[in-house]
Design goal:
Number of strands: 2
Radius of gyration: 26 Å
Helix content: 40-55%
Number of helices: 7
Number of domains: 2
Structural class: alpha+beta
Oligomer: single chain
Shape: flat
Length: 230
């Protein structure tokens, strides 16, 4: 049967807002590394950028926690900048790839990394989608007061870029008559039948067998986009 469509397909896409959040994330993280952590890799200039393009990508030997968690988590922020602004899974992956390329080529004085440009967007999409869908289970646009604040704060911690986007757009405090979830449960039909089964033969070798039988039939249905949300 046809698959269930999430309401992201119906949302208006805001490219410049998503791109601005991706760009701002990189600049903000670079500023933290440069002026707070004072990391040697954060001292960038036109000279380091030119060297990055001229040299090309290397394979780095950073710690496992850096390459396999920090970079994918960083990628999840890029990914959810797109997700929170109306883009679907595959479209949001392009923001993760673009944000990673910007960081590798422009925001560090170290040569760009082959493994980072792979782990950041791919791992970022995997983590980002989990975080985005988890935050969707928490948010409820019908609530207000302390409950609303708690839900918005927890969703922000789980998916910071979605939380930031909701603050920028005013969704974080706008009360609506519907929950506002983007991922609902598709309508389905479940049929279960139980019975007995008999098998006989009237040939030369006659035999008689009896047994039980069961049948389960599960089907789901298309949920088309509407002007509202679940």
């Amino acid at each position: 049967m046809a698959h269930f469509r999430d309401t992201t397909d119906c949302k208006k896409k805001h490219f410049w807002k998503a791109a601005g959040e991706t760009f701002g994330l990189n600049v903000g993280l670079w500023a933290f590394d440069r002026y707070v952590l004072k990391g040697h890799y954060s001292y960038i200039s036109l000279k380091t950028i030119k060297a990055n393009f001229k040299h090309g990508f290397d394979w780095d030997n950073d710690h496992l926690s850096t390459n396999m968690f920090a970079h994918p988590y960083h990628g999840s922020l890029y990914f959810n900048a797109g997700r929170a602004n109306g883009f679907n899974f595959w479209q949001s992956e392009l923001f993760a790839l673009g944000g990673s390329a910007m960081w590798e080529l422009f925001m560090e004085s170290e040569y760009p990394s082959k493994n980072d440009i792979i782990a950041t967007p791919i791992g970022g999409a995997a983590l980002g989608e989990v975080f985005y869908r988890t935050s969707d289970l928490i948010l409820d646009n019908r609530t207000s007061g302390g409950e609303r604040f708690g839900r918005e704060a927890l969703a922000f911690l789980i998916s910071p870029m979605r939380g930031l986007t909701r603050i920028i757009t005013g969704e974080a405090w706008e009360k609506k008559p519907v929950v506002g979830n983007e991922f609902g449960k598709p309508p389905y039909q479940l049929a279960i039948s139980l019975g007995t089964r008999f098998l006989t033969s009237h040939d030369n070798d006659r035999f008689f067998k009896a047994g039980a039988s069961a049948r389960i039939n599960l089907r789901n249905y298309i949920l088309y986009c509407t002007n509202g949300f679940v």
